[in-house]
Amino acid sequence: MGCKLETIAKRSDFLAANNGIRVARPGFVLLVNPLARPDGSRRFGVTVTKRIGNAVARNRMKRRLRALAREILPARGIPGADHVLIGRENGIERDFGLLRQELEAALSRAAAGKGDPPRTSGFKGKPRGRGK
Question: Could you tell me if 99 and 30 are in contact, meaning their C-beta atoms sit under 8 angstroms apart?
Fold first, then answer.
């Protein structure tokens, strides 16, 4: 089939993927850093923000995205790249078969270098500190 997948653990690797190719789909956003792994291995990471829901909903979304990544990325992932899946609200109740099709389509777009335009300045997260 494909090669073994490793997981991304360091925040800096997640941030580096944010500077790569971005492909948005209704259930998730795929970020690909194609230059991350010179040895040709593939890694993936999953993240879901608190805006999605409580811990139960976020963990359910993460489990679904991890299962999707482990099924598809060894064969269809981009060699030598870091892949990050960011969960969206629609992804929790979305049909798993539909998510699978969307990931395959997103991977083929990313492999062709056809990412979506970068995000414009918008929500940057809540401010840190008390901000008087």
Answer: no
